Task: structure prediction
Amino acid sequence: MADWHIASTEWRAAHLKTLRNERKAAILSKLMDLGYDEVDFPQRDLEVNKLEALTHEEWEQIRPTVVDAAEWMKNNRIAAEVGGRRHARGRPVYSLWSQFVAVASGTRAVYTAETAACLDYHEFLTFAPIAALIEADTDGIPAQELDPIRPGALQFVIQLRRRHLVRLRNILNGVALDHIEEEEWSSLTNEETIAKLDTIAAHLTKAVNGFWNSDRKQVEWYPYLPGPHADQTVLSPTESVSPGLMAKMLENIGKDTNTESGVVASTSFGQTGCAYYRCARCDERVAPYLSFKEMFSHFLEKKVWFDKASEAREKALPESSGSKAPIIHATLFNDHDWNLEEDIMVLDDSDKIAQIRELRNQLKAAYGRDPSDRVSQGFNTTTTSKSKKSTNNLPKRHMHRICRLCPEGFSPKPMFLAALKIHIQHIHCKGANVEEDTAVFDPSRDIAPANPWSMYLATLKIHIQHIHCKEVNAEDTAVFDPNRDVALANPYVFDVPFAPL
Result:
């Protein structure tokens, strides 16, 4: 009985296999009659793999489905063959490109980052003779077909490098971005052109020739600039943005204007072991530790704030003739003026870092300890009168203060009195008088567009997009209320931002 069952099972399996093979053969025959190749046969299609004989009526029913499957297989095969031939033609073209890059890069061929900044293989593929060879549907490119286009292709690569370098030189010289004096180049041989480009590149790599990127709000140097297709219209020379600052920074670290950018821009590719300098103009208790390029941005931000605050102060002076309001007549000192003799940045050793860490810990410990940092919860900051009856018995809470000596809208972000005293000492050159020089922060009064610490909706949208990964709507935001929203857990509310030690 068992042997019969096994034999029956085997016979049925063989019979079903025969049915499937006969069905496949019948469908393949009909597809070949329609002009399809055997390699395009859709072996895995459900209609093809049914376990039943194919009838004429069924074929007419399934024909559109099977033909579509065969057409899809055919198109994929052709596309793969075309891609394979294109790839085969691309190998000698890329080899040609590599040769020309080495030649066009001159004596600076070893600078791979510089080569990447100037030259783009995909742009080389747009060169008409090269594009024609790539698009030709042949199995390869014989060497004899490359020989006639070599001179023109080399000239094209040299022009790519020239265009990028001349644009950067134009930015430094204050000339129109795409301006080229053809007389300067027309009489030069390829070798002379390459040598001239080497000279321009060597000049561009000096650290003092940095570029301020207005989009990224940071300093960039050649050859660490974005590639050939980057928007160079957002670049301006650091010398025009902040004259003398870069040279002063180099002087502070013992370098001169001939120092190459790679020496000071070690963080460009995320390299480890880069130096972080402390701002020597900030109070040690709040001075940030920054990379060389970040330090430039730090001083530039301070300059922008001081210039705008000074302008606002000058505009307010005629309107307050005879007034003794401290906001108008207070000293406004630019403690980050790099033209002063003092150093602007220092590289601390471990002992100095430990000393500064202790000073910062002491400052943080003072936050909220001063009586001026605590106000009754019943105190309404928008009123000028304080009722002792209504507030004396209410619990106290932490409150931030702003500087009244700064022009309206230019006070630093709200902070505890211990940190605000540092600002008043450095910017207004006096000891802080709590009642006259500071005020409890009131968002309805103290938030102004000129204040860089205020977060308006445009900035808040960026925060929501990056942190919460969504577009902002009315339900995502609320008007800031210090009686409700100030919390110790919020790092943006209390103290001056510290860089980690």
